[in-house]
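This section describes the prediction task in plain terms. A model, or a person checking by hand, is given the sequence of a single protein chain and must write out its three-dimensional structure as a string of tokens. No templates, partner chains or ligands are provided. The sample shown here is typical of the held-out split.
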Amino acid sequence: MLSVYDIEDGLKESWLQRLSWQYVKRDRATAQIIAQRYLAASPCLETLLKLPEDSLGYHYATHLISLNFDPNFYRSIQVNSDTDYLLLRLRQTHDIWHIVTGFGVDVTGELQLKAFELSQTRRPLAIVLLLGGLFGALFSSPLSLASLWEEIVIAYNLGASQFCNE
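The expected answer:
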């Protein structure tokens, strides 16, 4: 069975992925971060729990602990290119984006996060996962499709309003 990482790795060198990164790099600050290739150290949840309760680090730690999530759940990538760097950072920050956006970790929340991400990055994996989620809903709960679509559109628009397109 294919994992999300298998699909992502398969799209890694596609022209769609290259277009996505070109879109992302149009923002000067983002292009600078990519050029610097900053990589976060593996988070120590115990240390983050010592931060103020209104800090992102504290919320991140409590979020992961409450869900029994491993902060290093993702498939690692050796960083040899901008694509490698961006994919690794997206993997490292996935759960942080759940906190920042307020989207849950259920199917709807994951699809909302992919819609938000799509509006900001044009990433092909986001499209694949959104389509898969919509097909799944069509067959498992077709009556919920309209409300799911509404949530996806709201999330996409939220991401579009938060990204500087200068």
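For orientation: The chain is about 70% helix and 0% strand.
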